[in-house]
Design a protein that fits this description.
Blueprint (H helix, E strand, L loop, with lengths): L1 H23 L6 H15 L9 H10 L1
Helix pairs in contact: 1-2
């Protein structure tokens, strides 16, 4: 249950981040980055998660965006 709550929170945070970025800096952000955020958010909405073994893997994912 705790994982589902965390996943839901992450999905909401990603959606919020995507809206903020598209509103504030739409011309400055690459469409590729926005597409990656959409893909992650869509996967979380469908119940697919991303598995991480360590915190450094999470950091690596977000830095690669």
């Amino acid at each position: 249950m705790r994982i589902l709550n965390t996943q839901e929170k992450l999905r909401d945070d990603l959606a919020r981040l995507q809206k903020i970025v598209s509103y504030i800096a739409q011309d400055e952000v690459s469409p590729k980055y926005m597409k990656k955020l959409s893909k992650i958010e869509r996967g979380l909405s469908l119940g697919r998660g991303i598995k991480f073994k360590t915190k450094s893997e999470i950091r690596k994912l977000f830095r690669s965006l």
